[in-house]
Design brief:
There is one protein chain. With about 45 residues, this protein is mainly alpha-helical. Helix content is about 50%, strand content about 10%. The chain is flat, with a radius of gyration of 11 Å.
């Protein structure tokens, strides 16, 4: 199980992020579930 933080998710979902390609490559190489925490997915409204 791998814990992913906000920076990873932002890079993965935002094609304009400087680390987008690295995040995609990481996802393609891992074979474990990605988990996160509620504060990572919560945003202010």
């Amino acid at each position: 199980m791998i814990i992913a933080d906000t920076g990873f998710w932002v890079a993965l979902l935002n094609r304009r992020d400087n680390l987008h390609l690295q995040a995609r490559a990481c996802v393609a190489q891992i074979h474990e579930p990605l988990i996160t925490t509620l504060p990572v997915i919560t945003r202010e409204c």
